[in-house]
Design a protein that fits this description.
It comes from Actinacidiphila rubida. This is Probable RNA 2'-phosphotransferase. InterPro entries: Ptrans_KptA/Tpt1, RNA_2'-PTrans_C, RNA_2'-PTrans_KptA, RNA_2'-PTrans_N. With 185 residues, the chain is of the alpha+beta class. It has two domains: 76 residues, RNA 2'-phosphotransferase, Tpt1/KptA family, N-terminal domain (Arc Repressor Mutant, subunit A), CATH 1.10.10.970; 83 residues, Alpha-Beta Barrel (ADP-ribosylation fold). Helices cover 31% and strands 18% of the residues. The strands form three sheets. A three-stranded antiparallel beta sheet has the order 1-3-2. Strands 4-6-9 form a three-stranded antiparallel beta sheet. Helix 1 crosses helix 3. The radius of gyration is 17 Å and the shape is globular. The termini are far apart.
């Protein structure tokens, strides 16, 4: 089984392949974002990225963000969310908690306060149910800022929310008027 450094490398590479560029290894995802595990492994190996099924199992099981999931029969794999390519994750509408959070870098705050949250290159805006997760997400891109999202008001106004298999809340957009900047993250 791969060491932790190798597991992280596999995770990052598969995030790119399964969320953004399946053609980078010559695979095609089905409409739900799934690909056969052995097809994926063979395609990655052909591009010099070899990993065993045990390595893949370990990566899926231990990934702190639970970015990936196996199908019920274990034969297929997909990313749980974060796609920039068109996929239908088949997630049902869900009632969100009253408040959700979004972590971002301080540099993006002026644009967000003008335009609201938009999916940008992704299919959806990603929100978290807890502030700590939002802080970690925001810190990936600089000094973190946490925005509180009035999810109850958005849901009441007809916005649709879905929750991914790993607990990330997804919606199409959040208007600036439904955001509040929290004090120091």
């Amino acid at each position: 089984m791969a060491d932790e450094k190798t597991t992280v490398r596999i995770s990052r590479f598969l995030s790119m392949v399964l969320r953004h560029q399946p053609d980078a290894v010559g695979i095609t995802l089905d409409e739900g974002g799934w690909v056969d595990v052995e097809v994926l492994r063979a395609a990655c190996a052909a591009k010099g990225r070899r990993f065993s099924r045990a390595d893949l199992d370990h990566m899926v099981a231990t990934n702190a963000k639970q970015r990936f999931a196996f199908s019920a029969d274990g034969r297929r794999i997909r990313a749980n969310q974060g796609h920039s390519i068109e996929v239908d994750l088949g997630l049902a509408a869900a009632t969100p908690p009253a408040v959700l959070y979004h972590g971002t870098a301080a540099a993006t705050l002026p644009a967000i306060l003008r335009e609201g949250l938009r999916p940008m290159t992704r299919q959806d805006v990603h929100l978290s149910a807890d502030r700590d997760t939002a802080v970690r997400v925001g810190a990936r891109h600089g000094r973190p800022v946490v925005l509180e999202v009035d999810a109850a008001a958005l849901a009441a106004a007809g916005h649709t929310f879905r929750v991914s298999a790993n607990g990330v809340w997804l919606t199409d957009a959040v208007p600036a008027g439904r955001l509040r900047v929290l004090p120091d993250a």
